[in-house]
Structure formats: C-alpha cells, structure tokens
Specification:
Layout lengths: L2 H9 L31 E6 L5 H10 L3 E6 L4 H6 L4 E4 L25 E4 L1 H9 L3 E17 L12 E14 L5 E5 L7 E4 L4 E4 L11 H12 L8 H16 L3 E6 L3 H14 L3 E7 L7 H12 L4 E5 L1 H8 L5 H22 L3 E5 L4 H6 L24 E3 L7 H10 L4 H4 L19 H20 L8 E5 L5 E5 L2 E14 L7 E2 L4 H14 L3 E6 L13
The structure holds xanthosine-5'-monophosphate (XMP).
Catalytic activity: XMP + L-glutamine + ATP + H2O = GMP + L-glutamate + AMP + diphosphate + 2 H(+)
Pfam family, one: GATase
Pathway: Purine metabolism; GMP biosynthesis; GMP from XMP (L-Gln route): step 1/1
C-alpha cells in the first residue's frame, strides 16, 4: 500500500457509507441552456443534419477563432434568432431531400438576412426549399475531385480557377433556385457551388471542412470574415475571461467541489473554477482502483506541486471493485462507475459544509457523442450519460462547449505544466473499459504492468507527444503458447496506439517495428500471465479507440 492510500485509509473508510436518497432532480443540461456565451462573442450556428463531418465544421470555425455552436437541424427558428448568429452553416447528412421525412430546417431561415452556407446536403436542402431542382443521377462522386470555378464569387474568392476538393454525395443540384448563380462545377456535378449574393445565401456540394479540400479553410474564412463580418475573438484569453465570468454567475457565493482525474480537462476545469471562486472550491481525486501504474501518486504529487489547490484524496478501490464484481457488460461498467463517482462526491460534499455545486471537466465532443438527436449513440461517456438521475449537486461544466485542442490552449495559457497539458486522454472508467469481461484485481494488475511498458517504450522512442493515445488492452481470452519446454495457456495483450485530432476519428499509428518489437518482448518477458502480444491496426470508424 502506498503512502497516500494509507493516509486515506486512516482518514476514513467510506466503503459502507449509506447512500442517502435525495430528491433534488438534476438532469444533464441541454446544450441550449448554456448559450450565454454567445451574447459576448460573434457566433456561428452549425445546424446538424446528421453528417459525419458536422462536428468538424464547428471545430474548423473555432480554429478561425470564431465561436460556433452545433445545434440540431430542427432547433426552432426563434431559438436560433435568440443567439444572434452572424452566420448559419447547414451541415451535410446521409438523407436525400427527395425522400419523405428527410430532415429539414425551417425555410424562413433563408429570409432572416443572416448569411447561410449550405454544405453538401445543406446545399441540396437550400436548393430544394427555395425552388431549385435536386436529382439522384445514379452517378455518385466520392473522394478528391477537381473543381472548376465559374466567374466571380465572394465565397470562393482568392482560389485558383481549378482546385482540388473533397466530394461525398449521390444527389446533385441540377438547377439552382432563382436568384442564384453557379460559381463552380466538376465533371459530373453541374452545381458544385452556387450563391445568391443579394440574400447572402451560399452553397457548396463539396466539403470545405475536410483537409483534402486544400483551400477549404480559405473558403470558410471567406464566409466568416468577408461575408458574415465576424471578428476573430474566440482565443484562449477570451475563453478564460468568458468562462470565469459564467462560473461566477452560476456559483454566486456558493461552494463547489471538483472531480480531478489528473488529466488536462479536469485540471483546466479546476483552475478556471478556482480563478472564479477561489478557495470556495475543493477538489476531490478518487482512486477507483482502475488507474494506471502509480498514477494516483503522480497525480497527487503534480497537483500539490503545481496547482496549490485544496485537494481531498479518496481511496475508493475496494468500493468500486466490489460493485464491478461479476459485471461484464461495458455500458453497465460505465453506469456503475459513473454512479459510484457521484455518490462519493456527494459524500465528500456533505463533509465540506454548504457545497451545492459539482464541477466536471466534460467536453463538447462528450456532450455531442452522448446523444444529440442526430448522432447515433455509440457509447455513453461516464461523465455525461452515465450520471444517475437523482443527485443533490448542481453541475458546473465550464468546458462543456470546448474541444480538446481549445482546452489544451487554455490550459497552457493558465500556466499548467506540460506534463499535464500534454498527457494522453484516459477514460473516466479507466482500465475497466480496457479489460474485456470481468474486472478482477489480478487482471487489473496484469494490464497495469503491460500498460506501463507500452507507455515507457513510447516515451523512450520520443513518440509520446506525437500520438493521441498509446495503451494496452486485455482481451478476455487465452491462447496457447510455449515457454521453455512448457505449454502455456495465457492471456494475450493488445497494444493500441492511435493518432487523432479530436478522438471523433482516429487512425492507428504506424509505429516503427523495433518499437513494437521491444514492447512485445518486454511485455511477454516481464508480465506474468501473458504469452502473446498483438497490435491493433483498426481505425475509427469503424472501430472505436477504446475496446469497450
Ligand atoms: P472511443 O473509444 O469512443 O474514445 O473512440 C474516444 C475518446 O474518449 C475516451 N473515452 C472516454 N472518456 N469516459 C471518458 O471520460 C468514457 O467513458 C470514455 N470512453 C472513451 C477515449 O479514451 C478516447 O480518447
């Protein structure tokens, strides 16, 4: 047992603490409830028609330092107007406008005088709703395609007469609505871009948000700065100011308790809240026994050295393991861990008197992926959808509208050390979602040792900061091997190393063979119970980064 665990044991044994049922209903807030930010900065609304790149559009806008919000396509017009957006972007989507029940926005959107840019399905919908013609020709265009520009265009200004763009569509606009001019074509698409300068309506069949459209960012910048006249004011300094102010407004003179995980998200969250309410914030770090090798000590040490925050350490190892006994379903694991977290926070909050707020480092992609109406639910993230229905603390989630790269930039600006800013993401449910099947102390220890080796080798190869995540997985199967002259029947370990910009998509890392070889041989030699190592070469999609 380590020193911090011993100290925690002496402090109290929370294992049998009775959970008091409380009645204050506090469900996860809707994204739309948290739109106070927009009043203070130029906003672009992205309407999501279920396209795979919808979130990417919102990110690209933020990369131009303009605030963007991703909303469902059927958000009532009045709500959109209330946000006072400087522009609206209609995303792509898998539907065909010609099919009954296809997702549609309110057609009055085009008469608000607010510039609108339709992308792919968004262009087709704009054409369809305004009297143009959309046809399913049977010829689909997919991938890199040459675009030929046709005449003057505010949206495409600065581009060459021919440019590469990224296409992914089956339907095409064959006749634009009246008032529109065709501004670009491809060999098989007669309307690759169109615009009605007078009404400030623009559409492109290709995807400017995808990097393969080489001048895509220039097109988005034309829309944001030339057409919508946005100011680029969404930078780390203003995010810090706006967020701090929002926290002060929400928490008032109250006290808050913050869940620290050791990652950049919760550290950044804690610093922001500390900035807003000072010592009325207490941070709680729970060791749920599902952490990586010596992680608990490292986190406590880093936070005490760098953050000087009020830190409470809770040793919940036995408690979590007991609840996970016999559980094999990944969603059930997440639900149990999420619930247990919240119960611990509630108990800690009761110890610090008058705490009304629970601070969490939830990010925008977690919110989106945990179920906007249009994105299919893939997994519940334990800090969003896994929350129990009944809890007695109000949530404060300052990063709820930020993407990871924005969080890192803010964290840097707040002075967090590189060891925290650059730390790889680690799921809240920890190693539990990297052990397929039941989580037992033996399996945890085995995975922890293998994972330590993966991390050590990635670091010693100088690749840690170049990859998004690098870790080990314990698939719950065993296979035959031979050691010495003995037959073995032991676990395989899967190594997972991925590159990604935002975890929404990811590619497996082409690690040099010597690095893989060293990891594999060390794992098989040093970790008892392992006789095989495999490398996961799946990308996301169709896989996910984690195995569960
Ligand atoms: P997937 O496996 O969905 O992971 O491709 C995307 C990113 O999210 C992390 N992840 C989680 N983080 N709670 C978290 O806080 C979770 O339940 C969870 N599941 C996945 C994962 O490590 C990756 O960075």
């Amino acid at each position: 047992m380590t020193d911090i665990h011993k100290a925690a044991e002496i402090k109290k044994d929370t294992e049998n603490t009775e959970i008091k049922k409380v009645t204050g209903m506090s469900k996860v807030k809707d994204i739309n409830e948290e739109i106070s930010i927009e009043r203070e900065t130029d906003t672009i609304v992205v309407l999501d028609f279920g396209g795979q790149y919808s979130q990417l559009i919102a990110r690209r806008v933020r990369e131009c330092q303009v605030y963007s919000l991703l909303l469902s396509y059927d958000t009532p017009l009045a709500e959109i107007v209330k946000l006072r957006p400087k522009g609206i972007i209609l995303s792509g989507g898998p539907a065909s406008v010609q099919v009954e029940g296809a997702p549609k926005c309110d057609p009055h959107l085009f008469g608000l005088g607010i510039p609108v840019l339709g992308i792919c399905y968004g262009l087709q919908l704009m054409a369809h709703l305004l009297g143009g013609k959309v046809t399913t020709s049977g010829i689909s265009e997919y991938g890199k395609t040459e675009l030929s520009l046709d005449g003057e265009s505010s949206l495409l200004q600065g581009l060459n007469a021919r440019e590469d763009c990224w296409m992914s569509h089956r339907d095409s606009v064959t006749s634009p609505p009246s008032g529109f001019r065709i501004t670009a074509r491809t060999l098989s698409t007669p309307v690759a871009a169109m615009e009605d300068e007078k009404r400030k309506l623009y559409g492109v069949q290709f995807h400017p948000e995808v990097r393969h459209t080489l001048r895509g960012m220039d097109i988005l910048k034309n829309f944001l700065f030339e057409i919508c006249k946005c100011l680029s004011s969404w930078d780390p300094a203003s995010i810090i100011e706006i967020t701090t102010e929002a926290i002060r407004r929400q928490v008032g003179a109250g006290r808050a308790i913050c869940a620290l995980s050791g990652g950049v998200d919760s550290a950044c969250t804690a610093l922001l809240v500390h900035r807003a309410i000072g010592d009325r914030l207490s941070c709680v770090f729970v060791d749920h026994g599902l952490l990586r090798y010596r992680e608990a000590e490292q986190v406590v040490d880093a936070f005490q050295r760098h953050l000087r925050l009020n830190l409470i350490f809770v040793d919940g190892r036995r408690r979590f393991l007991a609840r996970l006994q016999g559980v094999v379903d990944p969603e059930e694991k997440r639900r149990i861990i999420g619930e247990e977290f919240i119960r611990i926070f509630e108990e800690e909050a009761r110890n610090i008197r008058d705490v009304r707020f629970l601070v969490q480092g939830t990010l925008y992609p977690d919110v989106i992926e945990s179920g906007t109406r249009d994105a299919a639910r893939i997994k519940s993230h334990h800090n969003v959808a896994g929350l129990p229905e009944i809890m007695d603390l109000e949530l404060v989630e300052p990063l709820r509208l930020l993407f990871k790269d924005e969080v890192r930039a803010v964290a840097q600006k707040l002075g967090l050390p590189e060891e925290i800013v650059g730390r790889h993401p680690f799921p809240g449910p920890g190693l539990a979602v990297r052990i397929i099947g039941e989580v037992t102390p033996e399996r945890l220890e085995l995975l922890r040792q293998a994972d330590r080796i993966v991390e050590e080798e990635i670091k010693s190869a100088g690749l840690y900061s170049q990859v998004w995540q690098a870790f080990a997985v314990l698939p719950g199967i065993r296979s035959v091997g031979v050691m010495g002259d003995e037959r073995t029947y032991a676990y395989p370990i899967a190594i997972r190393v991925v590159e990604s910009e935002d975890a929404m998509t990811a590619d497996w890392s082409r690690l040099p063979y010597p690095v893989l070889e060293k990891m594999a041989s060390r794992i098989m030699n040093e970790v008892e119970g392992v006789n095989r190592v495999v490398y996961d070469i799946s990308s996301k999609p169709p896989s996910t980064i984690e195995w569960e």
